[in-house]
Specification:
The structure holds two protein chains of two kinds.
Chain A (H helix, E strand, L loop, with lengths): L3 E3 L3 E4 L5 E7 L5 E8 L3 E10 L2 E4 L7 E6 L2 E6 L8 E8 L10 E2 L3 E5 L1
Parallel strand pairs in A: 2-11
Antiparallel strand pairs in A: 1-3, 3-8, 4-5, 4-9, 5-6, 7-8, 9-10, 9-11
Chain B lengths: L2 E4 L3 E5 L4 E3 L1 E4 L6 E6 L5 E7 L5 E3 L5 E5 L4 E6 L8 E8 L7 E3 L3 E6 L1
Parallel strand pairs in B: 2-12
Antiparallel strand pairs in B: 1-4, 3-9, 5-6, 5-10, 7-8, 8-9, 10-11, 10-12
The chains are: A mainly beta, B mainly beta.
Chain lengths: ~120, ~110
């Protein structure tokens, strides 16, 4: 079974702190994704990566950056955390194969609170 | 661009009765469609997927969905609800060719009454 793990389940940070959220997948997937989930808004894509060192902005990239130095690991960085970044953050991974869109596998999520 | 609308934000059913979660999509391409379930404080789990094979798709835990191109719908059903089905459900549509991004509906919360 595909396993996607996230470094923390719950995280509390102060405004202005630099925050790192780590995600690791064990199925050699090419694609990795970071979403945030807020009540009534569903999931919104922050960034995704289709290869090592490659990244593309999603729908809401402002205030975030990402890093993918190894295929299995994708990090989300909040350079200076703000209270409006309090949310549930979900990491996902998927295969890539040309014209086929494969399902994404999700980690358990990190609930981040910025005070 | 593709989009998906879940027609009910909340559905309440009695245990043992059928469940229907409605989803309409819009896509200029023949999309892949998915249903995911999320239990409280958990990640999303894939229930089923449609990828242009059979229009009636069977998933895990007794769920199934029917793809209707003429109605641009992909409704999720289960004949008999169980207490463990209480969760949030997301209908998801893929992008265009070579686009591996997914678009998520806002979610439907299912409550199951004993």
């Amino acid at each position: 079974d595909v396993k996607v793990t996230q470094s923390s389940r719950y995280l509390v940070k102060r405004t202005g702190e630099k925050v790192f959220l780590e995600c690791v997948q064990d199925m050699d997937h090419e694609n990795m994704f970071w979403y945030r989930q807020d009540p009534g808004l569903g999931l919104r894509l922050i960034y995704f990566s289709y290869d090592v060192k490659m990244k593309e902005k999603g729908d809401i990239p402002e205030g975030y950056s990402v890093s993918r130095e190894k295929k299995e690991r994708f990090s989300l960085i909040l350079e200076s955390a703000s209270t409006n970044q309090t949310s549930m953050y979900l990491c996902a991974s998927s295969r890539f194969a040309g014209t086929v869109t494969y399902e994404q596998y999700f980690g358990p999520g990190t609930r981040l609170t910025v005070t | 661009a593709q989009s998906v609308t879940q027609l009910d934000s909340h559905v309440s059913v009695s245990e043992g009765t059928p469940v229907l979660l409605r989803c309409n999509y819009s896509s200029s391409y023949s999309p892949s469609l998915f249903w995911y379930v999320q239990h409280p404080n958990k990640g999303l789990q894939l229930l089923l997927k449609y990828t242009s094979a059979a229009t009636l798709v069977k998933g895990i835990n007794g769920f199934e969905a029917e793809f209707k191109k003429s109605e641009t719908s992909f409704h999720l059903t289960k004949p008999s609800a169980h207490m463990s089905d209480a969760a949030e459900y997301f209908c998801v549509v893929s992008g265009t060719v070579n686009d591996y991004k997914l678009s998520f509906g806002a979610g439907t919360t299912v409550t199951v009454r004993a």
